Amino acid sequence: MTIEYDERRVRSLLARYSGHGLCVTYLPMALKSLAPILTTDNMDRSVRFYVDVLGFTCGMQSPDYSSLYRDGVRIMLAAPNAHGEWKGPNFTGQLYIGLDTAEEVDALWAKVKDRADVIYAVDDFEYGAHEFGIRDDNGYSLAFGAPSKKT
Fold this sequence. Notes:
The protein is α/β, with parallel strands linked by helices. The protein has a single domain (about 5-145), classed as 2,3-Dihydroxybiphenyl 1,2-Dioxygenase, domain 1, CATH 3.10.180. It has helices spanning about 5-15, 45-55, 100-110, and strands at about 35-40, 55-60, 65-70, 75-80, 95-100, 115-125, 130-135, 140-145. The chain is globular.
């Protein structure tokens, strides 16, 4: 999909709302994807988790790097960088993987709940999402969600 921008209109909107606490910058290019690179000290174990538990396909695997994908989601795995000491995962956020429907979230939950470390069980949340959270084999936090059944 291509989005056409009317630069004059965008700049006018930015000028109008700049004093309202919005932090906006006009950049006339589209960002196409986000593919996190997660560090692992056991490539085989990590690839197996993403393939066997979450249904990803391994596009390529080497001792130092692997590329996994499922539908529109891509996750890369990398061995610890030789320039820094590996102390385990240090990512403090959560990777949120969206699905289309709450029913799809429920189906995935049924397949993974007994095969992964559960952070929180599937539920409808006040912010309108139907989701659950797990940790992967390295401890990275993953959430899977869709719009709530109630919305």
